[in-house]
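Q: I have 179 residues here and want to know how they pack in 3D. Can you give me a structure?
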Amino acid sequence: ALEAQPLPGTEGADQPFWSPDSRHVGFAASGKLKKIDISGGPPQNLCDVFAAFVGGTWNREGVLVFSEGGKLFRVSDAGGPRSDLGSSEQTGSAYLPAFLPDGRHFIYSTLPHGLHVASLDGGPPVPVLDVRSMAAYASPGFLLYHREGVLFAHAFDAKHFQLAGEPVRVADGVALTAT
């Protein structure tokens, strides 16, 4: 549609994010992580959110990763118990996760150490770039991030978590809210 349509039941929604098939939206509201079908119906509670919610991401296998109080957690898109991913214990406060194409690894921002990649399967996080920004993967192989009012695209190997070459300026004068 060309015009935004309100979704009843999403009042007070914070930090919305899309399901991989774009049929649902995840968000935090009233102390809960929720999802709602964009075709209508009431939101479904997935799990409790006890502290500040700062971003979520959703893979094709139905796993949501989200940041709460500077820690990363996972929960099923069917709801149920959440589990601590432990990545922030090694990197500092973790925010704004975004799945990479394989759906097992995700990139996230940390304070004070920049961007890292972690896995649903565990293991130590991999540092990627010393920048305070959210990041997103863009096909066919770029990492998008923000630095000092500029949006950059940087060639990124999503299998080995390595940047290549120099970043390319995509847009100037881009605002970013602080994490």
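Q: Anything worth noting?
A: The chain has a mean pLDDT of 92. The first strand starts at residue 14 and ends at 18.
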